[in-house]
Specification:
- The protein is α/β, with parallel strands linked by helices.
- It contains 7 helices and 7 strands.
- Helix 1 (18-29) links the parallel strand 1 and strand 2.
- The N and C termini lie far apart (40 Å).
- The mean pLDDT is 93.
């Protein structure tokens, strides 16, 4: 049986844990050669070890997504190991401080959120597109958040950064459609990851219950839910889909 990404090369950011690690493992299982990028060196080493143990092909790339020099090095690694780049998954991101209403928002925290969550996907796309143009196209999938389209208590900086990702993706989709480069966005709801582990504490029970009550399916998603959605958009099964956003949120956006 043909694997869905057989012969493809994919660079996945944030691959040291959570959604990015799940994406990297699934993509490798489906035949892709994976470049696992993350600022967390141990995390990507663990991800690559798991992929290789399962018979897949992957290399670890130490990658700060806000650094142009790190992206240049990542592309150099692409050439050295695999010679091309077919897929970019912009997963790396940060949440920021708990108190993020506009009037109380710390400027440095605001700057950090936009740098990682928006500049990171911009730089990744900038460098990936140059490589995809050389080989006749490719697919870019950005991981945003339902906070990009829904207002809520707090979350100003995070929501603004993720909303920017939506705009970035749509412009890329239109600008490079004739070059056979697709760009789409996934908007996760509450997903159980190391980043959201604080919700499992007794102190956060009220907050967790609040999010679950807002979710029609009545529970959080898991990292495989995002990985499979990403796989679809990255694959040839989605060859006529670009400039779109896919909600993976248990129905929150439909409320």
């Amino acid at each position: 049986m043909t694997k869905r990404l057989e012969g493809k090369v994919a660079l996945i950011t944030g691959a040291g844990s959570g959604m990015g690690a799940a994406q990297a493992k699934l993509f490798a299982k489906e035949g892709a050669k994976v470049l696992a990028g993350d600022i967390n060196g141990k995390g990507i080493t663990d991800t690559v070890a798991a992929i290789e143990k399962d018979g897949g092909t992957a290399i670890a790339i130490k990658l700060d997504v806000s650094s142009t020099s790190d992206w240049e090095q990542a592309i150099s690694e692409v050439h050295e190991h695999f010679g091309k780049l077919d897929i970019l998954i912009n997963t790396a991101g940060i949440v920021g401080p708990a108190e993020t209403k506009a009037a109380a928002h710390d400027f440095e925290a605001w700057h950090d959120l936009l740098t990682v969550n928006l500049t990171g996907p911009f730089l990744g796309s900038k460098y990936a597109i140059k490589e995809m143009l050389k080989t006749g196209g490719g697919s870019i999938v950005h991981i945003a958040s339902i906070g990009a389209t829904l207002g809520d208590q707090g979350g100003t900086g995070y929501g603004a950064s993720k909303a920017g990702v939506l705009g970035l993706s749509k412009h890329i989709a239109v600008d490079y459609a004739k070059d056979n480069i697709r760009s789409n966005v996934i908007l996760p709801g509450q997903i159980t990851t190391p980043m959201s582990s604080f919700l499992e504490t007794e102190e956060a029970k009220e907050t967790k219950d609040f999010f679950i009550n807002k979710t029609p399916l009545g529970h959080f998603g898991d990292t495989d839910d995002i990985a499979y959605a990403t796989l679809f958009l990255a694959s040839e099964e989605a060859k006529f889909i670009t400039g779109s956003e896919l909600y993976v949120d248990g129905g929150v956006h439909a409320n």
